[in-house]
Amino acid sequence: MSEIILKTEGLTKHYGGVHALEGADFEIRKGEHVAIMGDNGAGKSTFVRQITGVEQRTSGKIWFDGSDVEFAGPLEAREAGIETVFQNLALADALNVPDNLFLGREIFKFKLGPFSILDYKAMREATMASLEKTGVKIPNVNNSISNMSGGQRQCVAIARTATFHSKLTIMDEPTAALGVQETAQVENIIRTLKEAGEPLILISHNMRQVFDLVDRIVVFRRGRIVANLRKEETSGEDVVAYITGAKTAPEYAENA
Amino acid sequence: MPLAIGLSVGLLAGVVNGLLIAKFKIPPFIVTLGMMLFMRGVATFVTKGRPISFLQEDYVAIGAGMNPVFIFLGLAIVMHLLLKYTKYGKHTYAIGSNEQAALMSGINVDRLKVLIYGIAGVLSGLAAIVMSSKALTGQAGMGLMYELDAIAMAVIGGTSLAGGRGSILGTCLGALIFGVIISGFTFMRLDAFYQEMAKGTIIVAAVILDQWRAQKQAARA
Question: Fewer CB near the terminus (10 Å): N or C of chain A?
Answer without folding.
Answer: N
